[in-house]
Amino acid sequence: MEKNSGIYIAGHKGMVGSAIVRKLQQEGFSNLILRSSRELDLTDQKQVINFFEEKKPEYVFLAAATVGGIQANNTYRAQFLYENLMIQNNVIHQSYVNGVKKLMFLASSCIYPKMAPQPIKESYLLEGPFEPTNEPYAIAKIAGVKMCENYNRQYGCNFISVMPTNLYGPNDNYDLETSHVLPALLRKFHEAKIKGLEYVEVWGTGIPRREFLHVDDLAEACFHLMETYHGNVSVNVGTGQDITIKELVEIIKKIVNYEGEIIWNSDKPDGTPRKLLDVTLIHSLGWKYKIPLEKGIKDFYKNKFQD
Ligand code: GDP
């Protein structure tokens, strides 16, 4: 990418898209093309056709998606399937039609089989059934990965995709019904502390293990791969380390300095028992995460809730 290349970041207001924008700006890219969902509805084929014809972006980061935590995935099942398929179909196909030089599609580690051996290698994709709570989202995202792969094969495109692990950082979603565990817990513990509540309710059993990556580290990885990687394998992006939800709860409790009780609500689902990515490939491609989990959460908490 040249410093004045037209680079379209789809989903620039979201957690991932906004982190990619910050990274590109830091690197001195001056011709970023940004459209909010109000200005450009990516599920609408006509609008996407007109936008690509008019703007002719040279590079595309496809970070726009309908996303959510375990409960949102399970509740808005049709919507997650429909909207993600429409967004991907429109953006990936128009990127091909309009000769985009390179596109990066953001997939997700939750599209791997529920019982995948750990750590999860890129080659385990489609080797077993999905976790039922996020099957619709997984089906949509896999379609996106396969579009990139097959547009490369049939049309000679240069479309790549990445599989980020669970992310956290600025511009996350804090709605307790639809968010992921890390922002949800920060908010719950913070509010319990401020309001002097005696306990915090946490979902599930605390036994599942998850890997967490700061979104600024992901943006570094996306930039690095966009500059250097060509290939059909959707590259895992993670830290290579995971913790139990119980351990995460303890870290957040300590950072927020909350002294009350914790109540485990086992009526809520645990989801996948473990989701740890094998990061051998991305290490061999020259990227490694930098932000340690406790430091990342501390800074995130300070910026979001304390300033
Ligand atoms: P997942 O990684 O797709 O399962 O999505 P989540 O980040 O939503 O959930 C991860 C794990 O954290 C699951 O085992 C949840 O049951 C657990 N968890 C505990 N408390 C919460 C909470 O308040 N919100 C969410 N979203 N998950 C929670």
TrEMBL record:
<feature type="binding site">
    <location>
        <position position="270"/>
    </location>
    <ligand>
        <name>substrate</name>
    </ligand>
</feature>
<dbReference type="GO" id="GO:0050577">
    <property type="term" value="F:GDP-L-fucose synthase activity"/>
</dbReference>
<feature type="binding site">
    <location>
        <position position="141"/>
    </location>
    <ligand>
        <name>NADP(+)</name>
    </ligand>
</feature>
<protein>
    <recommendedName>
        <fullName>GDP-L-fucose synthase</fullName>
        <ecNumber>1.1.1.271</ecNumber>
    </recommendedName>
</protein>
<dbReference type="InterPro" id="IPR028614">
    <property type="entry name" value="GDP_fucose/colitose_synth"/>
</dbReference>
<feature type="binding site">
    <location>
        <begin position="11"/>
        <end position="17"/>
    </location>
    <ligand>
        <name>NADP(+)</name>
    </ligand>
</feature>
<feature type="binding site">
    <location>
        <begin position="164"/>
        <end position="167"/>
    </location>
    <ligand>
        <name>NADP(+)</name>
    </ligand>
</feature>
<dbReference type="GO" id="GO:0042351">
    <property type="term" value="P:'de novo' GDP-L-fucose biosynthetic process"/>
</dbReference>
<feature type="site" description="Important for catalytic activity">
    <location>
        <position position="108"/>
    </location>
</feature>
<feature type="active site" description="Proton donor/acceptor">
    <location>
        <position position="137"/>
    </location>
</feature>
<dbReference type="GO" id="GO:0070401">
    <property type="term" value="F:NADP+ binding"/>
</dbReference>
<feature type="binding site">
    <location>
        <position position="210"/>
    </location>
    <ligand>
        <name>substrate</name>
    </ligand>
</feature>
<feature type="binding site">
    <location>
        <position position="180"/>
    </location>
    <ligand>
        <name>NADP(+)</name>
    </ligand>
</feature>
<feature type="site" description="Important for catalytic activity">
    <location>
        <position position="110"/>
    </location>
</feature>
<dbReference type="InterPro" id="IPR001509">
    <property type="entry name" value="Epimerase_deHydtase"/>
</dbReference>
<feature type="binding site">
    <location>
        <position position="203"/>
    </location>
    <ligand>
        <name>substrate</name>
    </ligand>
</feature>
<comment type="pathway">
    <text>Nucleotide-sugar biosynthesis; GDP-L-fucose biosynthesis via de novo pathway; GDP-L-fucose from GDP-alpha-D-mannose: step 2/2.</text>
</comment>
<keyword id="KW-0560">Oxidoreductase</keyword>
<dbReference type="Pfam" id="PF01370">
    <property type="entry name" value="Epimerase"/>
</dbReference>
<keyword id="KW-0511">Multifunctional enzyme</keyword>
<feature type="binding site">
    <location>
        <position position="188"/>
    </location>
    <ligand>
        <name>substrate</name>
    </ligand>
</feature>
<comment type="similarity">
    <text>Belongs to the NAD(P)-dependent epimerase/dehydratase family. Fucose synthase subfamily.</text>
</comment>
<dbReference type="InterPro" id="IPR036291">
    <property type="entry name" value="NAD(P)-bd_dom_sf"/>
</dbReference>
<keyword id="KW-0413">Isomerase</keyword>
<comment type="function">
    <text>Catalyzes the two-step NADP-dependent conversion of GDP-4-dehydro-6-deoxy-D-mannose to GDP-fucose, involving an epimerase and a reductase reaction.</text>
</comment>
<keyword id="KW-0521">NADP</keyword>
<dbReference type="GO" id="GO:0016853">
    <property type="term" value="F:isomerase activity"/>
</dbReference>
<feature type="binding site">
    <location>
        <begin position="106"/>
        <end position="109"/>
    </location>
    <ligand>
        <name>NADP(+)</name>
    </ligand>
</feature>
<feature type="domain" description="NAD-dependent epimerase/dehydratase">
    <location>
        <begin position="7"/>
        <end position="238"/>
    </location>
</feature>
